[in-house]
Structure formats: C-alpha cells, structure tokens
Write a structure and sequence with these properties.
Helix content is 3%, strand content 60%. It has helices spanning 5-10, 263-269; strands spanning 41-52, 55-57, 62-63, 70-80, 85-92, 96-100, 116-130, 136-154, 166-187, 192-199, 202-212, 217-228, 231-241, 244-253, 259-260, 274-275, 280-290, 295-304, 311-312, 320-332, 335-346, 349-353, 356-361, 364-376. The chain has one domain: Porin. A hairpin with a 2-residue loop joins strand 20 and strand 21 (335-346). Strands 1-4-5-7-8-9-10-13-14-17-18-20-21-24 form a 14-stranded antiparallel beta barrel. A 5-stranded mixed sheet has the order 3-2-23-22-19, with no helix packed on it. Strands 15-16 form a two-stranded antiparallel sheet. Mean pLDDT is 91; it is low at 1-16.
C-alpha cells in the first residue's frame, strides 16, 4: 500500500502520546494505532502521570494530595506478512489505580495508616489483519490479560476500627482471555483514515484474602469476580491542507455495570468495594502538522465524561478536560523520537462509601508526559 507524503510523515505525530486520567480505572486508552501503520513497524514508549487530588472530608478536615504518581510502558510490533495479511502484537496496561491518603487528621486515616489502593493490569493483544484492497483492513485477535490488586481501608469514613476501617484485601494475580475485532478504511491520496475497534469484556475469578481488625480476623480462600469492561474506540484522521492533518478519537467504556464485591466485605456491610454508575465517554480532537523533513508536531483538546458522581473514595475525580502538545523528530525516514505533554483539569467529585458522602474533592489537576521511539523495517 503506497502512502503519500502527508500521511507517512505526519501520522505518527498525531497519535496520543500521554496517559489518561480517565473514568473508572481506565488508563492507556487501548489504542491499536501501531497495528494500522503501513509496512513493518515497531515502537516502545513510556507514559507518566503526575496527579494532584485534594479535598475535604465530611467534617471539613483538609485532605492533602492522595493520588500517587505512576508510569506505565507500552510496546507494539506489526509485520506486513503478505500484500493482504498483517500480523501484530501489542502490550499495554489498560486499567489501574494508585492512591494513598496521608496520615494527617481526616476520615481516611487512623493516624497510623492511611487508606490506600493499588490496581495493576497487563494486556497482550495478538492481531491478524486482512486487507482485501488498498482501502480496507479487517482485523481481530485474542487478548491475554492479568489483574491484581491490594486495598486497605482506614478511618472513620469506613466506620472506624470496629467496622471496615480496619479492612484489607489482597486480590492475587489472575489471568483470563478476551478478544477484539474491528475494521479500518483509508484513502491515502487525501490522508483519510478511520478505524472502529471493539474489545470484549474479560471475566476474572480471583483468589482473594480479606482481613478485618488489622489482620486479627482472616477470610482466606475466597473468589472475587471482576469483569473488566467492554469498550469501543473510533479513530479518524484526514488531510485538511498541505502537510496538515486533523484527527479525532472517541472512546466508550461500559463502566455502569462494573463492581468489585468481595464476599466477606459484602456480608458485613452489604456494599461493594468499588462500583460505578455511568458509562465513560471520552473524545480527543486535534491537528498535526509537518514543519520540515525532520520535525512535526500536534496540538489537541480532550474531554472525559467520568463514570458517575458520587465516586469511590479510592479515585475521587469525575472526568476531565485536557490540552496537549506533541512533537516528533525523525533523523531518518525509518525511525523517530516522539514526546508529548498534556494538562488535565480534573472534574470535581463527591466521594462516597456505603452510599454515604464522606468527602468533596475540587479544583484538582494532573500533568501527563509521554515518550515514544518508533522504527520502520
């Protein structure tokens, strides 16, 4: 498939570079853009997010920044095996959480320990694509996913030490499988390209240990069901002037039926550990431009709807607005170095536990950074 100069020189600079601070536990955005590159292609990148999430608890104590910095890598390789068949392998960390409340006086700490959460996932996606013509690409493949998490609840927000304020849970790493499918259509002469990708939900049955009373009462050997949500990504780009592209991404994630319901926590409280009330909708639009044979850049704005408000105390923000800038340096035609930065205005949110509002988090923000290296072979 032959591509014109606009398409081949600018496309990479328009791809999202920086991580999301999105609804629910969404992190990477689960892009398959690397698989849709022409010819043989490989890339590796790293993204870093530095959020600041502050607020007040129910009794008006100040709650200092409880959101931890985090980073996650990504990698992809795509091989054009024949004129009509392409193969790909993508790695990312699609969902996660990392938060810890400080030991200052608030309803989220007992003065010795603060409430904290860590959720980590890994995805490995294998793809095969069929290109019957220069314009169409149909693709599908299996997804291997692992999930693990630890959570500690501390303080009066959870009823204090006599109730869930002394609760810990360890969800051991579990592996499960899902799938994706989609199609792309392109007109290279005008640098037009659109793609629609569906990812299935993935069901995990996770070995779980719950403890109450700071470990005095243990409930081991239980299973907790976690279903990571299905999603749809729609990507679009087109040439709008010489050496200039417009691009857009729309993403839907089915969070409104997501819940983590550990067996013994639910028996004691009748509540879920984590749940969300709304689906996530997010969108990014922007412009990319080639400045010369070595340099190109992009600018974008973005929106995320959040997944419902009130929200969990383990992630007390509700959607965002963003602006981002990206740049790409190409020393030669077959490889590049790319970097980007994004600023997030995080949405205000009420934090709840057990159906009760226990905090309000307002005027928060985050900074995201990304670095990527790509190579054509």
């Amino acid at each position: 498939m032959k591509l014109n100069k606009i398409y081949s020189a600018i496309l990479l600079s328009t791809l999202p570079l920086t991580p999301a601070f999105a609804a629910g536990l969404d992190r990477s955005g689960q892009s398959i853009a690397a698989f849709l590159q022409p010819g043989n292609y490989a890339e590796a990148g790293i993204s870093v997010l530095d959020p600041t999430v502050k607020g007040k608890d129910l009794i008006k104590n100040n709650v200092s920044d409880m959101a931890e910095d985090y980073y996650f890598p990504s990698a992809a390789i795509k091989v054009q095996a024949t004129e009509h068949i392409s193969l790909g392998l993508l790695y990312d960390q699609p969902f996660g959480a990392d938060a810890m409340y400080s030991l200052e006086q608030s309803m989220f700490t007992n003065g010795i320990e603060g409430t904290k959460v860590e959720v980590e996932t890994h995805n490995l996606t294998a793809l095969i694509g069929y290109q019957p013509t220069e314009n169409w690409n149909f693709y599908a493949g299996p997804v291997y996913q692992t999930v693990q998490s630890t959570v500690s609840l501390r303080g009066l927000a959870y009823g204090g030490a006599s109730k869930l304020g002394s609760y810990d849970i360890n969800l051991r790493e579990d592996e499960a499988y899902g799938w994706l499918a989609g199609f792309a259509y392109q007109i290279p002469e005008i640098a037009l390209k659109t793609a629609v990708t569906y990812r299935s939900e993935i069901k995990h049955e996770i070995d779980t240990t719950e403890t109450f009373g700071f470990g005095a009462i243990q409930r081991p050997n239980a299973l907790t069901e976690i279903i990571t949500p299905q999603s749809v990504n729609i990507d679009f780009q087109t040439g709008i002037a010489a050496n200039t592209l417009a691009f857009a991404n729309i993403r839907w994630v089915h969070w409104d039926q997501f819940a983590v319901t550990p067996k013994f926590l639910n028996a004691v409280s009748g509540n879920n550990l984590i749940d969300y009330s709304d689906d996530q909708w997010s969108a990014t639009v922007g412009v990319g431009r080639k400045f010369n044979s070595h340099w190109s850049g992009s600018a974008s704005v973005g929106y995320d709807s959040g997944a419902g408000n009130p929200v969990t105390t383990l992630g007390p923000t509700e959607g965002y607005w963003t602006v981002g800038l990206g740049g790409q340096y190409s020393p030669a035609e077959n490889y590049f170095i790319q970097a980007g930065v994004k600023y997030f205005w995080l949405g205000d949110a009420h934090a709840q536990t057990g159906g009760n509002i226990v905090g309000e988090f307002t005027d928060n923000y985050a900074l995201g950074y990304g670095l990527k290296i790509g190579y054509r072979f």
